[in-house]
Amino acid sequence: MISKKGKTMLALLLLVTLKIVLSFGYHHHGPQDANVRLLKTLHSYMDTSSDPCQNFYQYACGNWENAHPNITSKYVDTFGSLDYIINKRIKFILQGRRRRKISRNFENNEIYRKVRSYLAVCEEQKKFEPEQYLTVFKPLPGVEWPENGEEWQYPLEQWNVWSTLGRLQAMGFNGFPLSLELKHENATHFRLELDKVNLLGFTAFEQKIVDHLEGSLNWNYRQLAMEMEEFLKTLAALRKNHNNFKEEKISLAELMQRVPSVDFEEFFENLLGLQREFFENIQMVVTNLAYFQELGELLRQTPGQTLIQMLRIKFLGYMEKQMPKVENHLHCLQHMRDLVPLALDYIYEEEVYRHQRNHSDGVIKRIFHRMQGKFLEILQQHQQEFSEPEIALLEEKISRMKLNIGNLPQVEDGNFYVHYFRHWYVTDNDFYWNHLNALQHHHQQRFKLLQLKTAQPQHTFVIWPYGSPAFQPSANMVVIPHAYLRFPIFHPDFHDLFLYAELGNTLGHEIMHAFDINGLDFDGQGNPTTLISSTLPNKKAFFKSLRCFSQQRSASLNEKIADISGFNLAYATYFDQHPPGEVFQFHPHSPLGAKQLFFIKFAQFFCAINPKRITYDESHDTPLYRVPQVVANHRDFEKVFHCPATKKNRIVLEKCNLW
């Protein structure tokens, strides 16, 4: 039985939800238009010549690319379309202000002015050249970089390489010759994590510069190239010798005492802009501490000319990756979304979403609360395996879970934005200066989180440049970006079946990240806990489910849990409240049942051009695998689509589900 506390939580959640609309009839024009339009769009993506029992992804999405002709310069999948559409809308907004004679010089809103100026200067730049960044960013204040292969004129005996490394790190340059990350300590505090080099070797762009030196007739150039190659080999050997993954939690001040061979004071003063007296308050987790003692000695023994040329090449390689990708449509806005996503979200909120927030938010919260309630019911089925304190933690976690629609800081007025962007400077004529300043501002704001000691607005949103939703475990918060809230993904007037099949599935996916292998390490407030994770090996049914998942191909076990259990949660929440006999029709096509439409609408979020032509990172499987795995693990799929048991090429799997 559900605990008394759980019953109270469930009752409160049910009270805040609205009555579900069961019929497809509406009393006014708007909702019917939205659903008819969606049905037309949904059918246009389908390849009805394919057998859903053999290849459900092809059946649901096989015509998606034909329905989006000439898109490869804009986006290649539904995820990309979210970013493209919102960037296009923001550009339209900014152009509209220009047409209304609101010039950059007379824009009263500073955030609008900075965004418009940055965008205009970026779009005026027809070609982007990494070497131009060297004219703006210097290795030391007022000191020029050497030319490629040439001798540096700065007195090497006066050069502290750690000053330059700190300046580079402040621009986001990371991984060479050390790796520094900002991570959550708990729900309100942050810490630094320091580890050894992770960027060995040269990128293709960097290698071209080295090849130029190696192929030169100038002996000094060839000698320099050999010295850099030798330095990398020595650094690689050093990295290999320190691979014990031992972590130590110390203050920055203690790190400076224990590793005197590295001038961490100079490094962090240039990075954080803080004086030594503040270092005692900065907590760090250092992995492979002995590596840094030897690293300091290695840099001391390496010729300064070799080091400055190496850093020059590495900096150019870093900036080449950061430049706008001109082959992408709206490349400047996409570039800005990586740097100042909050500024773009602020403008979209002011110009678009705030006018529909009440209506849309009410619908989204209703679905979210229903799914929270359903998950509380599901927890009843696990009471024999989890102790009372563990069940209480799980119930608190789902009940306290927050929802940030729009991914904006939860503040009452706009002063937060003014203060946040106060030191983001933009010129009207120099893209490279603007880009470097935006990079510095972006990373400066991140490192400022080290100084937060209590709950602040910075804890209520995440720096997230993507259109797809996310879960932030340290805040126990689901984030729904503005970009997601667009047709055909979402419309507040969609029928509940479509809302649960898409929005509900997405919410379910993110909710399940709170209860996957990593998510169980956090409590309802976002603080670390070992209450459940320390006893997982003793939970036989739980581990049986994990073994079931692990036997199926996947890039990430946690993503597979979120995909399959999240869909099951959305499906159960909807159909436990609605009669399954509802029938929807594509006129003049054959009618499809409600459950068939539910599966199809879910799958179409993953539609893309031929997935074999897309490279995805290792954190997620391609749509070609994600969709079939979800439907193959659902108990109703074969019955809903009338799949005979002898059908060839079917993915026959043991049905896996964690929750």
UniProtKB/TrEMBL annotation:
Pfam families in alphabetical order: Peptidase_M13 (PF01431), Peptidase_M13_N (PF05649)
Instruction: Tell me which residues make up the Peptidase M13 N-terminal domain.
Output: 52-406
Q: What would be one Gene Ontology cellular-component term for the protein?
A: plasma membrane
Membrane-spanning residues: none
Sections of the chain in a coiled coil: 221-248
Keyword Methyltransferase, does the record have it? no
Instruction: Specify the protein name.
Output: Neprilysin-4
Which CDD domains does this chain map to? M13
Indicate how the chain sits in the lipid bilayer. Answer: Single-pass type II membrane protein
Domain of life, per UniProt, equals: Eukaryota
